[in-house]
Structures are given as structure tokens and as C-alpha cells.
Amino acid sequence: MKTDDNKLKIIKADRIDKDIDVRNQMAEIFAEGFAQWLVYFSKDKNILAKAFAHMFVLDQFYVAMVDNKVAGMTACTDGNSLSVRLNKNELRKHLGFIKGIMAGIFLKKEFESPYKDFPPKTGSIEFVGTASEFRGKGVASQMIQHIIQNTPYHDYLIEEVADTNIPAMRLYEKLGFKEYKRKSIPEKIAKKNGINNLLSLRYVKK
């Protein structure tokens, strides 16, 4: 079942009414969707949401809104601009001193490292997530289609999708994305998180 198109609206996150707590709603989606990657820092998704709510660069994000609820989110950058910026003080505040420091080191490297030789006229689609109550209703598909239709890029990349994330892979393939690169996960890490490869996907406008 899809959401009612008359109710769902896709808007840049920085244009949402200030009375709506868009940042914290986005953080809840992030904590739920990326919990597998963040479990070392905390198993409590509420703590994760509070720890990372500060990081979103709102003018780089699109959100799907149903009434006053954030049904989904995703960023689209030019491959050079950052979609998130981590604050070490916020991480330590919510994750504790040691894990906060480690999150600041390791996740900053993961989230804020610039792409090398990023191709021109290409958009980077990042942090695709859907709120649990709206999953299976076409929210992510509508957001990505909106971005492709309303941004000036010719190609679009989605980097590092886990090979175990079958629903995401099916969605991206259905939208016309194709794998162009894969990176294997070291064996010890693969045994812990169950992910063997990270896939990179490309969409080319016709």
C-alpha cells in the first residue's frame, strides 16, 4: 500500500515549519535505520537518536512529510558538500566520554571524508531512511524519484549499501540503479555484523 500522494509532501528539511521538531524526527529514523552500524556506541535507539540529532545539515536533506510527521529522509549533495557534521561535545554528552570520543574519531572519518575524484554533474544520495510506521508504503521510492526529477545532476550515486540489505537493493534496482563497484568487508568484521560486501550503485538519467 502506498501513502496517499495528497498527504505526502517532499520538502527540503531546512524549509520545514520551526514548530515541527524535524531534526529529532530525522534522528529517530537514523537511529532505527542505522542501528546495525551503531550498536557498539549504544544499543538504546533513543540514546543514539539524541546523540546524532545535532549532525544533520538540513539544507542538504529532503524529508517526506505526512501531516506533521517525518515519514522519510534522504540527503542529496554534489559530492563535495557535507550532509552531516559531527560535534564531539554532543557525542560525549549522550554516549559517554570514551564512546563519545571514539564516535567522534571513527564516524567523523566515515561520514565527513570527502569523495576522491567525485565525477562532475553527479549527485550523491545519502542516508536514505523511512520511519518504521511508513515502511513498505513507497516513501523512499518517492523521495528518490523527487530528487532525480528536481535536481540538476545527470548521474546519481548511492555508496556503500550493505549486501544484506535486500529491501534497499530491490528498491534501488527497481528505480534503475545498477551496481558499479563493491568493497569487501574484512573477515573478522563480517562475522560480527553479517555483511560481506558494500555495494556502490549508479543511476544515469535517460
How would you describe the overall organization of this protein?
This protein is of the alpha+beta class. It has 2 domains: 8-137, 3-Layer(aba) Sandwich (Aminopeptidase), CATH 3.40.630; 154-206. The chain has 8 helices and 7 strands; from the N terminus they run E-H-H-H-E-E-H-H-E-H-E-H-E-H-E. Strands 1-2-3-4-5-7-6 form a 7-stranded mixed sheet, with helices on both faces. Helix 1 (22-33) packs across helix 3, helix 3 (45-52) packs antiparallel against helix 4 and helix 4 (88-95) packs across helix 5 (97-112). The longest helix is centred in the middle third of the chain and has 16 residues, at 97-112.
Distance between the first and last residues' Cα: 28 Å
- Give the overall silhouette: globular
Helix content: 25-40%
What is the average per-residue confidence, as pLDDT, rounded to a whole number? Answer: 92
Total helices: the number is 8
Order of the strands making up the biggest sheet: 1-2-3-4-5-7-6
Helix/strand order:
EHHHEEHHEHEHEHE
Percent of sequence in beta strands: 25-35%
What is the CATH third-level topology name of the largest domain? Aminopeptidase
Number of domains: 2
Low-pLDDT stretches: none
What is the CATH architecture annotation of the largest domain? Answer: 3-Layer(aba) Sandwich
**How many distinct beta strands?**
7
Under the CATH scheme, which class of the largest domain? Alpha Beta
Rg over alpha carbons: 17 Å
* Structural class estimated from helices and strands: alpha+beta
Describe the main β-sheet briefly: 7 strands, mixed
